[in-house]
Specification:
alpha/beta; Rossmann fold; seven-stranded parallel sheet; 10 helices; 7 strands; about 40% helix; globular; disordered N terminus
Length: about 290
C-alpha cells in the first residue's frame, strides 16, 4: 500500500479574481464549492448537462450561475457533457475568452452505481468510466496550457478532484468493483499529474469527505431522510476545498485530503457546525475510508 502524506496548507487567503472551471456544479457539493469561491469574488465556469430541471433533483446550471452571482462572483454557465471532447474544449476556450485564463480546475462531475458485479449493467459501467475516469483526465488535460500560464503569472493554479484516497485493501473493490474502479481512476489522475506537473508549479490534489454529505441525491435514496440526518452539510467540503485552493500549489500537491485533514491544516478543529442534527458519534462514515 502506498502511503500518501498530506502536505501543509499555507496562507493564501482569497480566491478573488481567480477563475475556476468546474465539471458539474449545478447542485450539491460542487455548487457549495462554487458558492464558497463566489463569496471571495471568484469567476466560476460551470460545465454541466443540466439545462432543464431534473424531475427528482432541483437545480440547473443556470440556477447555479444565478446563485453564484448573487453570492458575489461572476458566472459562466456552459451546457455540455464532460464525456464529449468538443464540449470540454469549448468550456476551456470560453473560460479563457471570458475571464482571461483558468486558475483552478475542479473535477466534480461523477456517476455512481454501487451494484455488485453480477448486477452492474455495462451501460452503467461505461457511464461511470466515461464521466469519472475519462472526464477527469480530459478536463485536466485540456486545461493544462491555461494552468501553466496561470503558474507563470503567479496566480497559484490548482487541479482539485473529488475522489478518495487510493487504497489497495480489497474491501471496497469487493463491495462495488465497477464504482471503485471508476473513482480510483480519478485518484490516479491526481497521483500521476501531481508528479508530472511538479516542476510547473501546479498543485494537484484530491478531496474526499469523512462522513456522508447531505445532498438531494442522498435524500432520494431509500432511507434517505435518516441518512441525511446522519450527514454533514456540503459546506464542510466547500471550506476544505477553499483551504486547499488558497494554498501555495508548489507546497500543496500530490495529496489525498479528507475534508477534516484539509481543515485541520487551516487551523479548524471544531466540525460541529457542519452537522445537521446528529451528534459527531452518530455521523455515518463515507465509503473508501
Amino acid at each position: 500500500m502506498t502511503t500518501i502524506t498530506s502536505g501543509g496548507i499555507g496562507p493564501r487567503p482569497t480566491l478573488a479574481g481567480r477563475t475556476l472551471l468546474m465539471s458539474g456544479g449545478s447542485r450539491g457539493i460542487g455548487l457549495a464549492i462554487a458558492l464558497r469561491a463566489a463569496r471571495d469574488g471568484a469567476n466560476l465556469v460551470l460545465l454541466a448537462k443540466t439545462a432543464e430541471p431534473h424531475p427528482k433533483l432541483a437545480g440547473t446550471v443556470f440556477d447555479a450561475a444565478a446563485a453564484i452571482e448573487a453570492a458575489g462572483g461572476q458566472a459562466l454557465p456552459i451546457v455540455g457533457d464532460v464525456r464529449h471532447d468538443d464540449d470540454v474544449a469549448r468550456a476551456v476556450g470560453s473560460a479563457v475568452e471570458r475571464f482571461g485564463g483558468v486558475d483552478v480546475v475542479v473535477n466534480n462531475a461523477s456517476a455512481i452505481d454501487l451494484s455488485r458485479t453480477d448486477a452492474l449493467d455495462m451501460k452503467r459501467y461505461d457511464l461511470m468510466q466515461d464521466i469519472n475516469a475519462r472526464g477527469t483526465f480530459l478536463l485536466s488535460k485540456l486545461s493544462l496550457p491555461a494552468l501553466r500560464e496561470s503558474a507563470r503569472a503567479g496566480r497559484g493554479p490548482h487541479i482539485l478532484t473529488l475522489s478518495p484516497p487510493l487504497n489497495l485493501d480489497p474491501k471496497w473493490a469487493g463491495e462495488h468493483l465497477g464504482y471503485t474502479m471508476a473513482k480510483y481512476a480519478m485518484s490516479l489522475v491526481t497521483l500521476g499529474l501531481a508528479e508530472e506537473l511538479r516542476g510547473d508549479g501546479i498543485g494537484v490534489n484530491s478531496l474526499w469527505p469523512c462522513t456522508l454529505i447531505d445532498t438531494a441525491a442522498i435524500r432520494n435514496l431509500p432511507g434517505g431522510q435518516a441518512m441525511a440526518h446522519a450527514s454533514r452539510s456540503p459546506e464542510i467540503v466547500a471550506d476544505a476545498a477553499h483551504a486547499i485552493l488558497t494554498s501555495d500549489p508548489r507546497l500543496t500537491t500530490g495529496n489525498f485530503f479528507t475534508d477534516e485533514e484539509a481543515l485541520r491544516g487551516a487551523g479548524v478543529t471544531d466540525f460541529s457546525r457542519y452537522s445537521l442534527g446528529a451528534g459527531e458519534e452518530q455521523l455515518v462514515r463515507d465509503i473508501f475510508l
